[in-house]
């Protein structure tokens, strides 16, 4: 291989890896986007809810082996998708009994103090989930074994006999499922009655209230859906990434960066935001030391907030 | 305020005495260390409070300052043999510098964006320090002259040094709390635009706050390195460091120096004890109990224990509230002369502003003579509030001029406009609910007062002018709707404006309250203030204004005496639609 | 301003209550001689702490069953466990609690992760309690401390000894000595310690050309970029130096995905994580086959009886470094106590410092010899190389421990 071939292969490989991981990050961000974008709740526990999604997947497939009959290829993916409804229920009630007590219209006029309350509340929930997870699941990292995670679809060779691109199968499937989930979610929000009620509640909660929409319930549902979507993303990540109860911390920053990049209130925007994070994370290794991979994410994140605070795909600047 | 300062010093002395007693009663070094850590996190909480508690700009990134402080101390000792006695003050300097550097770009952001941007700094620093190869840096053990390197075999020495640091932080923050600095931060927290409108140079105070906060965090980070002995990036830059600063403060009480002290005194021993006692049996139980405690407190006392207890005490001592304000307190004033002969104070020339494709204000011109009351009226969406925002600097017009006493004030910051003598009230009254009436007004008085005594004098005069005398010590949160409006008016007046903008000051008041408010406004006018008032409803304004400027769809459709304007067909059309205009 | 006094009082009472509730110093004058084990029992490394505990408990059981410490009139031994948690700060706090609440401790072993050991030993040094450690970083014994004893070879020495030996194996298998390698290492102290002789040129006489040298910060998010370096430069073997099982899994799976698995690129690692039972569970035997790792200790030939009992008692599939090293450490303390004749940490430390053993507890360490230099390094230490063969990590070097022949992967 010549220097140029190596360079071309490195670039294509990073691009492919970035696109795949970007789809999964995009799905996580879409989930958070529902919560942060619609309700302006900074949910610190989002990463830990995702952790619950990962463990749900693990228990469904490996732990209790309920889905083991489906085999090591289909089973984990079905398990990941089923993590969605499970976490929807958890998210719905978590919002109803905890988060809604300190956010939403109930405290709309309370001079910003509601912000502190929800921050610390979700921080507390995050602590409970992380450490409760340690008690319930143990601290030993677990992983889902599927042959997909260590095999690839090989593209190429593109240049003589060289320059091949390896597309990891587990991530390829994960990316495909992610795109499908985002499309379903998009159709749900824009085409169904519940979806439209959610949008109305997001745009103007008071007006929605006058229109007879049960805004409280709409918020519970939005929170549940946001949790479920992130949980599915977590389940998909779990098919190739070992995890333990503290894993949420590694992803929560990525999610916020993605949502802010994409802009508030835009489901598709949040997806693209996550995609950009994935691409930056992978492509930065071409020019920077690998240790600064994550620093590159934060730098891009900061640049976007400074230069385009409404996000790359956002509709409006946050009102003061 | 001097009284309360002395009182709080007394309370602190009691705390310090109790602390020293505990340190000497503590059965062993482990508890002495725990007591030291209580103060470390109390000080870290105070640092966070200095920026976020007072100004409301929530920071998730205080670990940046803490970590830089810790690394300053440890690296200086490892590579240059510099003692932490000098390293720690330097760490404070590094922290302050980092604060300013981080503030420069980040203060352009508000709300959630600010919070999230702050989150990114320590995490980026964490990876950078790992990359630089500083993943484990130990403080070298000095066997020769340990005390010179802040190394003591008796743990109590560290506890006492921590107490001294806390005392410094306490005094510094109490001074900030009770000064113009603290008041300005509170005003920013409540409503940054209103603060800017009240003449507060918000950007400057925010920089002072982040520098002070960064310095405190840097110092305590440096001290922490000395106790910890081994500094690793996750320990000092990790998310838990920022979170812990925030948790102890929110738990104990936000926006008061006691909050972090209370929070750390309860939570740190609790967490450590749980970890020590139950960590082996149920790993993570300390985190769970910690989390449950936090969630519980937030649901019961969302602003922290300090305020909850204080509110309970206040409620019990209901008598403290003083007599309620009644509208009949306002003496009526004689018939107004509707005199428009004063010299021109404000001249608006062809001002325009468009948002996207919508022309919000379109080529509007009018003049305001000295001593007059000019009413800007128009239906909803006519562009009244936008016009106001253009006039006092909150938005910049696309074209046109605003001449205040001959000077074009277009392009000035709101605080600069305020300093030239233009005050304003806001449509939604935003008192500082935790502060007394007097302190609320005092915030507005600083802009035109060189010293605090003058500010106090101006504040009392303004309170008298609006008729809130005798209510000075009430907490603003307990005021009625009209009292809050009057408070807002007094706050604007305390800044000694010559021209006063009132934004829908009558909206939402009952009819007797409207009359009372009109009487107050007339009295303000008699006191020599020129007034520009926008109002949606015409009726009440008939008694008040000397001249109407009518806006519709951003354009000036009429100007003239109120009694004439209300008969103008174009005005009726604007308000009621074409059908009615034809009938009239 | 109201209620501050009351609040202060409350705060003071709460602090006081916490102090009282936590209990005073434990009743120390019971018969047992206390030895501390400080290791992560919670957090991401809890599994390693668990393995250490299993080894330590077995040693205590064996000693007490054999009649305790003879020179102390048969006093039994008690293992007191302290959770070092998930950060250097928690480890240090635990150490502080350990030395202040258990004044009768005669010695301590721990704390697994090098950074924890660095933090904990800062406390034990000041308290003058001897600490034995299985951590590899050479920093630990570079600080001039007198009460720290590093049982294994430092990572640095391990690399200098293991790599030439492995190159010999390769030469025997392929007919020529490999001349190119690449390094993927995390930035923890032990990995850096292992990689340093190659990076600094100390091993130039081997004629190894380093084709790439990449460092990452754990936890690794994704291994694509790292393994791509290996793919495009194709060294003859690769040094893969992580510290945590999840990172190992990501790297090994990526190696396989990129068509470098199955022995196409032989892998040499450092540390016992690469031989952990949960690694097998998480990546499966195929990807591990042939992977070699250099460790400070491993249960092998000569300890069969103990290994069998260990497996029986704990249900673990094999005995890792963490378990046998802790077992050995407790035995070292027993030996020192026997010699000192009193349960005093300083006397125990003196006896350890003076040790020159080739039998007794020395059999639990690969060099078969225990003797410390003035820094506290065990000059008799040797390393063990283990290799995954048919789904089991087996010692292949040195001969006195090896239970299988090394196989240089070729394909």
TrEMBL record, chain A:
Among InterPro entries, the record links this protein to:
ABC_transp_permease (IPR001851), BCAA_transport_permease (IPR052157)
Task: Name the principal localization, coarsely classed.
Answer: membrane
Q: Which GO terms describe its biological process?
A: amino acid transport
Q: Where in the cell is it found?
A: Cell membrane
TM region positions = 12-37, 49-67, 73-95, 116-137, 170-189, 218-241, 253-279, 286-307
Q: Which UniProt keywords apply?
A: Amino-acid transport, Cell membrane, Membrane, Transmembrane, Transmembrane helix, Transport
- Which top-level group of life is the source organism from? Bacteria
Cellular component aspect of the GO annotation = plasma membrane
What is its membrane topology?
Multi-pass membrane protein
Give the family this protein belongs to, as stated in its UniProt record: Belongs to the binding-protein-dependent transport system permease family. LivHM subfamily.
CDD domains hit by this protein? TM_PBP1_LivH_like
User: Protein name, please?
Assistant: Branched-chain amino acid ABC transporter permease
Give the Gene Ontology MF terms in alphabetical order: transmembrane transporter activity
Residue spans making up a coiled coil are none
Q: Which organism is it from?
A: Acuticoccus mangrovi
Query: Which Pfam families does this one have?
Result: BPD_transp_2 (PF02653)
Automatic annotation (TrEMBL), chain B:
Show where the ABC transporter domain sits. Answer: 346-578
Q: Which keywords has UniProt assigned to this entry?
A: Amino-acid transport, ATP-binding, Cell membrane, Membrane, Nucleotide-binding, Transmembrane, Transmembrane helix, Transport
Is Cell wall biogenesis/degradation among this UniProt entry's keywords?
no
| Cross-referenced SUPFAM superfamilies | P-loop containing nucleoside triphosphate hydrolases
GO BP annotations listed: L-amino acid transport
- Subcellular localization: Cell membrane
GO cellular component, alphabetical, reads: plasma membrane
Annotated membrane-spanning segments are 6-26, 33-51, 57-79, 86-107, 113-134, 155-176, 207-231, 243-268, 288-307
One function term, GO molecular function aspect: ATP binding
Keyword Cell membrane among record annotations: yes
Q: Which Gene3D superfamilies match?
A: P-loop containing nucleotide triphosphate hydrolases (3.40.50.300)
Superkingdom, natural source: Bacteria
PANTHER family on file:
BRANCHED-CHAIN AMINO ACID TRANSPORT SYSTEM,ATP-BINDING PROTEIN, HIGH-AFFINITY BRANCHED-CHAIN AMINO ACID TRANSPORT ATP-BINDING PROTEIN LIVF
Q: Which family does it belong to?
A: Belongs to the ABC transporter superfamily.
Q: What is this protein called?
A: Branched-chain amino acid ABC transporter ATP-binding protein/permease
Q: Which organism is it from?
A: Acuticoccus mangrovi
UniProtKB/TrEMBL annotation, chain C:
Positions of transmembrane segments: none
The record's section on Gene3D superfamilies has: 3.40.50.2300
Q: Does the keyword Ribonucleoprotein apply?
A: no
Extract the signal peptide range. 1-28
| Residue intervals of the Leucine-binding protein domain | 33-391
Could you tell me which InterPro entries the record lists for this protein? BCAA_transport, Leu-bd, Leu_Ile_Val-bd, Peripla_BP_I, TAT_signal
Q: Which SUPFAM superfamilies match?
A: Periplasmic binding protein-like I
Give the family this protein belongs to, as stated in its UniProt record: Belongs to the leucine-binding protein family.
Its BP terms in the Gene Ontology are: amino acid transport
Q: What is this protein called?
A: ABC transporter substrate-binding protein
Native organism: Acuticoccus mangrovi
Record keywords? Amino-acid transport, Signal, Transport
Coiled coil as a keyword? no
């Amino acid at each position: 291989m010549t220097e140029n071939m190596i360079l071309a292969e490195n670039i294509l490989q990073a691009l492919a890896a970035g696109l795949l991981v970007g789809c999964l990050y995009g799905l996580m961000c879409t989930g958070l986007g529902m919560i942060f974008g619609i309700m302006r709740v900074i949910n610190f526990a989002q990463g830990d809810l995702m952790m619950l999604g990962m463990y749900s997947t693990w228990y469904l497939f490996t732990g209790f082996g309920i889905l083991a009959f489906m085999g090591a290829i289909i089973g984990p993916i079905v398990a990941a998708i089923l993590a969605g409804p499970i976490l929807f229920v958890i998210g719905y009630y978590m919002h109803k009994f905890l988060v809604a007590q300190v956010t939403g219209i109930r405290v709309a006029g309370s001079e910003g103090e509601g912000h502190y309350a929800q921050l610390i509340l979700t921080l507390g929930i995050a602590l409970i989930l992380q450490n409760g997870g340690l008690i319930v699941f143990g601290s030993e990292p677990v992983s889902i074994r599927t042959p997909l995670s260590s095999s690839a679809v090989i593209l190429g060779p593109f240049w003589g006999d060289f320059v091949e691109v390896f597309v990891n199968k587990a991530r390829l499937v994960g990316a495909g499922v992610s795109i499908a989930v985002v499309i379903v979610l998009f159709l749900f929000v824009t085409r169904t009655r519940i979806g439209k009620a959610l949008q109305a509640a997001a745009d103007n909660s008071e007006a929605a209230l006058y229109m007879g929409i049960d805004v409280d319930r709409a918020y519970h549902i939005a929170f549940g859906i946001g949790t479920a979507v992130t949980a599915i993303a977590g389940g998909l990540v779990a098919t190739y990434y070992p995890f333990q109860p503290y894993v949420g911390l590694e992803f929560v920053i990525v999610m916020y960066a993605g949502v802010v990049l994409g802009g508030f209130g835009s489901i598709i925007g949040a997806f693209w935001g996550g995609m950009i994070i994935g691409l930056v994370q992978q492509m930065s290794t071409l020019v920077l030391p690998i240790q600064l991979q994550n620093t590159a994410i934060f730098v891009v994140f900061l640049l976007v907030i400074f230069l385009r605070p409404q996000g790359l795909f956002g509709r409006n600047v946050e009102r003061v | 305020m001097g009284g309360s300062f002395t009182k709080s010093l007394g309370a602190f002395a009691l705390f310090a005495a109790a602390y020293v007693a505990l340190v000497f009663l503590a059965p062993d070094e482990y508890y002495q260390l725990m007591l030291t850590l209580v103060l470390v996190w109390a000080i870290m909480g105070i640092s966070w409070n200095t920026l976020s508690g007072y100004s409301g700009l929530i920071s998730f990134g205080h670990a940046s300052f803490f970590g830089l402080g810790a690394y300053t101390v440890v690296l200086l000792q490892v590579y240059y043999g510099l003692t932490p006695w000098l390293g720690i003050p330097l760490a404070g300097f590094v922290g302050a510098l980092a604060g300013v550097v981080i503030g420069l770009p980040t203060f352009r952001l508000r709300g959630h964006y600010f919070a999230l941007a702050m989150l990114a700094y320590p995490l980026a620093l964490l990876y950078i320090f790992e990359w630089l190869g500083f993943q484990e840096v130990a403080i070298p053990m000095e066997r020769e002259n340990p005390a010179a390197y802040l190394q003591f075999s008796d743990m109590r020495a560290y506890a006492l040094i921590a107490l001294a640091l806390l005392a410094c932080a306490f005094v510094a923050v109490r001074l900030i709390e009770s000064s113009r600095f603290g008041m300005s931060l509170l005003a920013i927290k409540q409503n940054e635009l209103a603060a800017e409108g009240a003449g507060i140079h918000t950007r400057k105070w925010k920089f002072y706050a982040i520098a002070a906060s960064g310095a405190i965090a840097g110092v305590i980070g440096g001290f922490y390195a000395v106790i910890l002995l081994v500094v690793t990036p996750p320990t000092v830059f990790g998310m838990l460091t920022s979170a812990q600063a925030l948790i102890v403060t929110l738990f104990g009480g936000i926006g008061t120096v006691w909050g972090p002290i209370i929070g750390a005194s309860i939570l740190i021993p609790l967490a450590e004890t749980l970890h020590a006692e139950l960590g082996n049996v149920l790993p993570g139980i300390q985190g769970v109990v910690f989390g449950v405690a936090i969630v519980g407190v937030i649901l019961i006392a969302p602003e922290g224990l300090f305020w909850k207890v204080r509110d309970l005490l206040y409620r019990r001592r209901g008598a403290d509230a003083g007599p309620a304000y009644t509208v009949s307190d306002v003496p009526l004033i004689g018939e107004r002369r509707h005199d428009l002969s004063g010299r021109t104070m404000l001249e608006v020339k062809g001002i325009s502003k468009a948002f996207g494709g919508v022309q919000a204000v379109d080529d509007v011109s009018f003049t305001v003579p000295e001593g007059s009351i000019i009413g800007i009226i128009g239906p909803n969406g006519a562009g009244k509030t936008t016009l106001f925002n253009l006039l006092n600097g909150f938005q910049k017009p696309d074209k046109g001029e605003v001449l205040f006493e001959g000077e074009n004030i277009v392009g000035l910051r709101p605080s600069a406009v305020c300093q030239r003598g233009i005050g304003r009230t806001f449509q939604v009254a935003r008192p500082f609910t935790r502060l007394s009436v007097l302190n609320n007004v005092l915030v507005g008085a600083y802009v035109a007062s060189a010293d605090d005594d003058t500010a106090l004098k101006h504040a009392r005069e303004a309170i008298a002018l609006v008729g809130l005398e005798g209510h000075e010590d009430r907490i603003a949160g307990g005021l009625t709707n009209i009292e809050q409006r009057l408070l807002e008016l007094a706050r604007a007046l305390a800044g000694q404006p010559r021209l006063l903008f009132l934004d829908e000051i009558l909206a939402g008041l009952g009819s007797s309250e409207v009359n009372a408010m009109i009487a107050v406004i007339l009295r303000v006018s008699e006191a020599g203030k020129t007034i520009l008032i926008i109002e949606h409803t015409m009726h009440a304004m008939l008694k008040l204004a000397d001249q109407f400027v009518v806006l519709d769809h951003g354009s000036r459709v009429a100007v003239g005496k109120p009694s004439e304007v209300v008969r103008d067909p174009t005005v009726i059309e604007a308000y009621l639609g074409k059908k009615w205009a034809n009938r009239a | 301003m109201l209620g501050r006094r009351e609040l202060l009082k409350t705060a003071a009472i709460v602090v006081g209550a916490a102090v009282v509730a936590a209990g005073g110093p434990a009743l120390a004058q019971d018969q047992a001689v206390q030895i501390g084990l400080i290791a992560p029992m919670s957090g991401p490394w809890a599994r390693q702490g668990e393995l250490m505990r299993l080894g330590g408990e077995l040693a205590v059981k064996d000693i007490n069953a054999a009649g305790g410490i003879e020179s102390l009139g048969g006093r039994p031994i008690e293992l007191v466990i302290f959770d070092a948690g998930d950060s250097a700060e928690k480890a240090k706090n635990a150490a502080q609690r350990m030395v202040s609440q258990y004044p009768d401790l005669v010695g301590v072993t721990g704390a697994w992760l090098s950074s924890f050991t660095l933090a904990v030993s800062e406390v034990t040094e000041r308290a003058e309690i001897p600490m034995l450690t299985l951590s590899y970083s050479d920093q630990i014994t570079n600080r001039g401390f007198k009460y720290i004893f590093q049982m294994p070879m430092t990572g640095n020495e391990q690399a200098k000894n293991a790599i030439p030996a492995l190159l010999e194996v390769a030469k025997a298998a392929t007919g020529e000595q490999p001349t190119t390698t690449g390094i993927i290492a995390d930035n923890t102290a032990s990995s850096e310690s292992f990689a340093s002789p190659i990076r600094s040129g100390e091993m130039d006489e081997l004629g190894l050309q380093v084709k790439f040298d990449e460092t990452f910060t754990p936890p690794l998010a994704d291994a694509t970029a790292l393994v791509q370096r290996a793919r495009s430069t194709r060294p003859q073997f690769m040094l893969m130096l992580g510290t945590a099982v999840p990172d190992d899994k990501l790297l090994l799976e990526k190696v396989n995905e990129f068509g470098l698995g199955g022995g196409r690129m032989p892998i040499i690692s450092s540390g016992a994580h690469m031989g952990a039972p949960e690694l097998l569970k998480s990546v499966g035997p195929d990807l591990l086959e042939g992977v070699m790792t250099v460790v400070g200790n491993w249960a092998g030939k000569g300890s069969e009886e103990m290994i069998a009992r260990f497996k029986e008692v704990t249900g673990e599939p094999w005995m890792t470094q963490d378990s046998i090293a802790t077992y050995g450490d407790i035995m070292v303390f027993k030996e020192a106590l026997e010699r000192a004749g009193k349960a005093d940490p300083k006397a125990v430390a003196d006896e350890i410092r003076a040790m020159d053993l080739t039998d007794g507890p020395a059999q639990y360490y690969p060099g078969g010899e225990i003797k410390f230099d003035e820094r506290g390094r065990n000059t008799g230490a040797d390393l063990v190389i283990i290799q995954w063969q048919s789904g089991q990590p087996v010692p292949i070097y040195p001969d006195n421990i090896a239970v299988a022949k090394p196989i240089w992967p070729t394909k």
